[in-house]
Design a protein that fits this description.
The structure holds two protein chains of two kinds. By secondary structure, chain A is mostly helical. In chain A, 68% of the residues lie in helices and 0% in strands. The longest helix of chain A is centred in the C-terminal third of the chain and has 32 residues. By secondary structure, chain B is mainly α. Chain B is 71% helix and 1% strand. Chain B contains 22 helices and two strands. In chain B, helix 3 packs parallel to helix 13, helix 7 crosses helix 19 and helix 11 runs parallel beside helix 16. The longest helix of chain B has 32 residues. The termini of chain B are far apart. Classes of the chains: A mainly alpha, B mainly alpha. Chains A and B meet through helix 1, helix 2, helix 3 and helix 4 of A and helix 5, helix 6, helix 9 and helix 22 of B.
């Protein structure tokens, strides 16, 4: 029906996330913006594998030949979630350390190396 | 015996063992396991390199072979270039493990576990024949690298470096994955060869959008301008043993992925296209910005980091030609650069260990008591400038011939080699000879408040040996046979031939390697850059004695340039992501202009 909508949402999430990361003044906020940015790939992957009127790719109780959505992109998306959750967790741990050591979560105050 | 899966499996299993058992494992046993694993990986990669010299080696996991030209399983498609990159990585990780034995006062087994995870991911990245696996190994490599960078989490510097590194690279990975998803949506294929065949010579905007997105992530890893900001922040603060693998092989792995995708997956990106034009331009900009920023540093590790950026630009220029000559030159350059740069980082690490600082001006004259370290450092500087007999000198010469039609790019390569070599020699003169102006308040790389990783003590053999070994390997790399490298480079551009090999097990194509550069030309080219480097270093060290008529115009050119460049490197993650977005947009526009 409106097949382009998920792609538009993916682009929108990507741009929102980028804007948030660029303008953020707080590390935790920045990391959440990164997570928003990452979720654009989930939407994109699912949109690519989606077929209108198809069932979930579980072939137990359906007659052979029933159209199903693409299971490969779903596997890709799950892998992607695992990988990206790792990165977000690591970054949050770094944010905790930054707060403990520097007493601030402002990325600008963290910048001791410049030039 | 099949060697293909072992370079990935062995380090990952050992990593799980070390991380899982943690403190229950005595330090000596953990060290032995880590070193033994990386040595085994070196051996497996060497065997792979030997057996892939005649043509790509294809390994299908679980025996799921392709049916009617359609890849149903996942494969490793090992060509000599990939196996060589994995071998380089394994050697550097072994040296890093050796160096780290006595480098940290308080050490857990996690450092070795992270290095091994990095090694496994790197080998998978270099050997895989599947686009999505490439992404997964890329992310695994990134995640372990973030951990390595932030290993000294007690200081603010490493946290800043690791945050910048992780945020920019995670965004790059998102863009890469979006590109991979678009490729899959267009063709339904993820295997490189299957994908190349399905795309054929289709020039449609979606393919170019996918190409631009995929390459952006790899270019972030490769630290190509304007994606390079994270590298200097991360390398300056990461523990030295981690720096040598970052600089020596991780950055180059990013360029290798770009070469692989532009060379054999999307043959629709011919040389002379707007997209390759942008890659060439970005390579030139990277060479020049890296060289200028390298010269402007006083923090030794940051100086070496910017030199890596500059050299990554050189390799990028070679790759952007999409010709066998360019790829051969780039491969040789990566090989030589990896060893030389790793040796230089180890020298900086020994300075930090012995004298508790890596600040060129703070260390002024304090290295006089360490003449051997000084000699090692100077040798590294001269080799970095392109002195024979390293593969770097051969690559430099090959690239300069391949670039006969691009005068600007050829000059950038010369400038990159000469200026970065000169910066190392200048630091060497100040630290080990105590000559040159002192300028205690000179800017450059911020404060050098890097906390030493050890109590001051003599330099143990576990530090000397890897540094010496790397320098010797660098010199030995100059004797590498040219033709197998050239043939493998030509093969990377032969998409249909490789696809037939992978999907139908056809006999490997045997393309003619590009012509080898005569020794005489290599020597002339190296003499030029080395003499330029020595002259430039001498000029910097005797600046105060120069006549005013010469000094004033030099200062008038350099000072504003340095000020602008420094002002751009703010070290803030938001700015870096803004640059990343701009660069990705530029790449996308170039791809759209087809």
């Amino acid at each position: 029906m409106i097949g382009w909508l998920p792609y538009a949402v993916a682009v929108w999430l990507l741009l929102c996330g980028l804007y948030g990361v660029v303008t953020s003044r707080h590390l935790v906020h920045l990391i959440i913006c990164l997570a928003v940015l990452q979720s654009s790939t989930y939407v994109l992957l699912l949109a690519i594998g989606y077929k209108s009127g198809a069932v979930a790719p579980v072939f137990v109780d359906v007659p052979p030949g029933t159209p199903a959505v693409d299971p490969i992109v779903q596997a890709l998306m799950l892998t992607d979630i695992v990988v990206e959750a790792t990165v977000v967790a690591l970054l949050l741990a770094l944010a905790v350390q930054a707060h403990e050591r520097g007493g601030s979560l402002d990325p600008a105050k963290l910048a001791s190396l410049r030039g | 015996m099949q060697f293909a899966p072992w370079p990935v499996a062995a380090p990952l299993v050992a990593c799980a063992l070390l991380a899982g058992l943690g403190k229950k494992l005595p330090a000596a046993v953990a060290d032995a396991i880590a070193l033994a694993t990386s040595t085994v990986t070196v051996f497996c990669c060497a065997m792979l390199l030997r057996s892939s010299a005649e043509g790509p080696l294809v390994y299908w996991f679980g025996g799921f072979r392709p049916r009617q030209g359609i890849a149903v399983g996942i494969d490793f498609a090992v060509d000599a270039t990939g196996a060589g990159l994995a071998l380089l990585g394994a050697i550097l990780v072994t040296c890093a493990l050796l160096f780290s034995l006595r480098y940290f006062d308080k050490r857990s087994n996690l450092f070795q576990a992270l290095l091994l995870a990095f090694l496994g991911a790197l080998c998978g990245f270099a050997l895989t024949g599947d686009l999505f696996d490439l992404f997964v190994f890329f992310e695994l490599m990134s995640a372990s690298a973030f951990g390595l960078c932030a290993y000294k989490e007690r200081d603010l510097g490493p946290i800043q470096g690791a945050v910048n590194f992780a945020v920019t690279n995670a965004i790059g990975a998102v863009l890469t994955l979006s590109g991979v998803a678009l490729f899959y949506g267009r063709t339904g294929a993820l295997n490189f060869s299957h994908l190349a065949r399905a795309l054929g010579a289709q020039h449609d905007p979606l393919v170019f959008a996918a190409l631009a997105l995929t390459c952006t992530g790899f270019l972030v890893k490769a630290a190509i301008v304007p994606f390079h900001f994270w590298l200097a922040d991360a390398h300056a603060v990461a523990p030295t043993p981690a720096c040598i693998v970052f600089s020596g092989v991780m950055v180059e792995a990013g360029i290798y992925a770009v070469a692989r995708i532009c060379g054999s997956v999307v043959p629709a990106a011919p040389s002379g296209h707007a997209f390759t034009g942008v890659l060439l331009g970005a390579g030139v900009a990277t060479c020049l910005v890296g060289a200028a920023m390298c010269w402007a540093q006083r923090h030794l590790k940051r100086l070496l980091a910017f030199s890596t950026i500059s050299h990554a630009g050189v390799v990028m220029i070679g790759v952007s030609l999409l010709s066998p000559e360019g790829f051969t030159g780039a491969s040789l350059y990566v090989l030589g650069h990896g060893f030389v740069k790793a040796a230089l980082f180890l020298c900086a690490g020994m300075l930090l260990h012995r004298l508790q600082s890596v600040d060129e001006l703070e260390l002024y004259g304090r290295g006089r008591r360490l003449p051997w370290l000084g000699a090692l450092f100077a040798a590294g500087g001269v080799l970095l400038a392109g002195a024979p007999p390293t593969a770097l000198a051969l690559g430099d010469s090959a690239l300069r011939r391949a670039l006969e039609a691009h005068a600007l790019a050829r000059w950038s390569i010369v400038i990159a080699a000469a200026v970065t070599g000169a910066a190392v020699l200048r630091a060497c003169g100040r630290i080990f000879l105590g000559i040159g102006p002192r300028e205690p308040d000179a800017p450059g790389g911020g404060t050098s408040d890097e906390s030493p990783e050890t109590q001051p003590a003599g330099i143990p053999a576990t530090m000397w040996v890897p540094a010496l070994l790397l320098l010797l390997l660098a010199m030995a790399s100059g004797t590498i046979p040219h033709d197998p490298i050239g043939r493998s480079a030509a093969l990377m551009l032969d998409a249909p031939g490789v696809a037939a090999r992978v999907l139908e097990a056809a006999p490997a194509p045997q393309p003619a390697p590009p012509q080898e550069e005569p020794l005489q030309t290599v020597l002339v080219h190296s003499a030029e850059t080395v003499l330029a480097a020595i002259a430039l270093a001498a000029l910097a060290l005797t600046r105060k004695r120069l006549p005013d008529a010469l000094r004033a115009p030099l200062g008038a050119i350099w000072a504003p340039l340095a000020r602008v460049l420094r002002a751009l490197h703010t070290g803030e993650v938001g700015d870096q992501v803004a640059w990343l977005t701009a660069g990705a947009a530029l790449l996308g526009c170039a791809a759209a202009l087809s």
